[in-house]
Amino acid sequence: MSEGNFxxxxxxxxxxxxxxxxxxxxxxxxxxxxxxxxDMRRYLSQDYQxxxxxxxxxxxxxxxxxxxxxxxxxGRFLGQVATTEEKTYFHRALDALGAGTGATVxxxxxxxxxxxxxxxxxSQDYVLIVAVLCVAEWTYLGWxxxxxxxxxDNFVHREWIELHEGPEFRQWVDFLRGxxxxxxPGLDEDHRQEVLSVFHRAVELEKRFFDxxxx
Length: 215
Ligand SMILES: Cc1ncc(CN)c(N)n1
Prior knowledge:
Blueprint: H1 6-12, H2 17-22, H3 25-32, H4 37-64, H5 68-83, H6 85-96, H7 108-123, H8 126-144, H9 155-163, H10 167-183, H11 189-214
Helix pairs in contact: 4-5, 4-7, 4-8, 4-11, 5-6, 6-9, 7-8, 7-11, 8-10, 8-11
5-(aminomethyl)-2-methylpyrimidin-4-amine (NSP) binds near residues 47, 50, 51, 136 and 206.
Keywords: Hydrolase, Thiamine biosynthesis
Family: Belongs to the TenA family.
InterPro entries: Haem_Oase-like_multi-hlx, TenA_E, Thiaminase-2/PQQC, Thiamine_Salvage_TenA
């Protein structure tokens, strides 16, 4: 691993799955606005449950980061996810699709993803927490940035792209990658392999999540 390039080192070790995620037919259909309502409803209902645990993981990042400088971006992003865009999006989108945000039977992949996030959260190991967050956000930037203008008219598709694209979201992904790049060189070999294992599990789960959404 070359100095300062831990995030790219991790990503490259997850090929070809990484590319299968960012070019996944379901993600591509979102960018084109062609996902059938039944599939979008299944996907967003499961993702609402994902985001619940993801929000708890962001809280763990605030708690476990190794400096005030590092805590601040998590706090800022946590505020956005919990109170504004993402939360109102789910309510509006699921309403438009004829579903609510109430109890949902979890798909196996949603259970498995929540288990991974809970493991990272309870480990209180900052670099493992960043690894999971980074996969979730970087893969989403990956597919969303493949969307071409004009974005779909349907707000359910368009806003989901916009939430995962644009300068602010890019900056957030750069921050997460930067944290991995900063921490990687200081890890011993066992710890580095542990981060790779968590990163790899998260990439596999992203692929399974899109597979599930496709039905
Ligand atoms: C499954 C999944 N992975 C990532 C993201 C992006 N926050 C998401 N909403 N859902």
